[in-house]
Structure formats: structure tokens, C-alpha cells
Specification:
By secondary structure, the protein is α+β, with helices and mostly antiparallel strands. It has one domain: Actin, Chain A, domain 4, CATH 3.90.640.90. The chain has eight helices and four strands; from the N terminus they run ααααβααβββαα. The protein has a four-stranded antiparallel sheet with strand order 1-2-3-4. Helix 2 runs antiparallel to helix 3 and helix 3 crosses helix 5. InterPro entries: Anti_prolifrtn, BTG, BTG-like_sf. This is BTG1 protein.
């Protein structure tokens, strides 16, 4: 079912890994060789983790599973890659934002720093054959609906009016 999915996720995964590596580089104190190793280890960990959870035909499916999260707990995939270059979780918490969410989905990689930060897109590519779906402008830039597991904004809106 995941036709050529492995090759297709390469760009998204390398974008995500490069972003976390950039954050570490900006914090300083880590050598380029270590950073390169970290990036490769993280890419490998993400590839393994996403192998059976990548659905180009339904990009938001599995989004929660693929979400990389630091929230007073270190994301295990980042922790694993950091361990390979001898960085402890304590050190990681000093170097990386204490609250970081990174969504790695087919055709889009985006992140948010802080719980109320705005969501920034790192990588976006048009979905093949997505001409029939709604145009990009009408797509909401906020990922709230994905985070809560609802894929259609209209349903989400109804849910919100019901619960408020």
C-alpha cells in the first residue's frame, strides 16, 4: 500500500532532521562532525519510525504518530540520535527549545516553538493529483485540526460550537 513511500519521504525526513540539527548548531558547542552524525542518525531513526506510517494519499493520516515532540519530555527519536553522539537528555534540554512540535507529513513539514507559537512551514510541495481538492489558499495554515485528529475544518468547527 505504501507504493514508493520510502523514497517519497526522503525530502520530508531530511528537512526535519536538518531543522533539528540547525537548532543544535545555533546553540553552539557541538562540532560539525558530531552534527553530521546526529543528522544522519536522526534521519535513519525517522525512516524506521515512519516506514509503515506514511500515507501520501491521506497526508494527515498518522500525523500524530509522526509528530516529533519536546514538551518537558525529550522526543525518543531525537534522544536516540543525540545519544549516538554522546549528548545526554539534560544537555539536549539546554540546547533545544523546551517546547517544540515538528509535524512531518507527506508534502509538508512544519513546526511550532512553544505551546502558543505560530506554526511555520519548513517544506511544502503540491500533492500529486491534488487538483481536485481545495486550492492552497483556502487551506488553513494552522494545524489545530490535525493535532486534534479531525481532518476536516468544517467538522472541527461544529465540534467547537457544540463543546463551547
Amino acid at each position: 500500500a505504501v507504493c514508493g513511500g520510502r523514497a517519497a519521504m526522503r525530502t520530508e525526513i531530511s528537512t526535519a532532521a536538518a531543522f533539528v540539527t540547525r537548532l543544535l548548531r545555533a546553540a553552539g558547542g557541538i562540532g560539525e562532525e558530531q552534527l553530521r552524525c546526529f543528522r544522519e542518525c536522526l534521519q535513519e531513526a525517522l525512516r524506521e519510525h515512519y516506514k509503515h506510517h506514511w500515507f501520501p494519499l491521506a497526508p494527515s493520516k498518522g500525523s500524530g504518530y509522526r509528530c516529533i515532540r519536546i514538551n518537558h519530555k525529550m522526543d525518543p527519536l531525537i534522544g536516540k540520535a543525540a545519544g549516538m553522539i554522546g549528548l545526554s537528555h539534560e544537555r539536549l534540554f539546554q540546547l533545544l527549545p523546551s517546547e517544540l512540535t515538528l509535524w512531518v507529513d507527506p508534502f509538508e513539514v512544519s513546526y511550532r516553538i512553544g505551546e502558543d507559537g505560530s506554526i511555520c512551514v519548513l517544506y511544502e510541495s503540491p500533492q500529486p493529483g491534488a487538483k481536485t481538492t481545495k486550492p492552497l489558499e483556502s487551506r488553513t495554515s494552522c494545524k489545530e485540526e490535525w493535532r486534534t485528529g479531525r481532518s476536516s475544518p468544517s467538522k472541527n468547527y461544529n465540534m467547537m460550537t457544540v463543546s463551547s
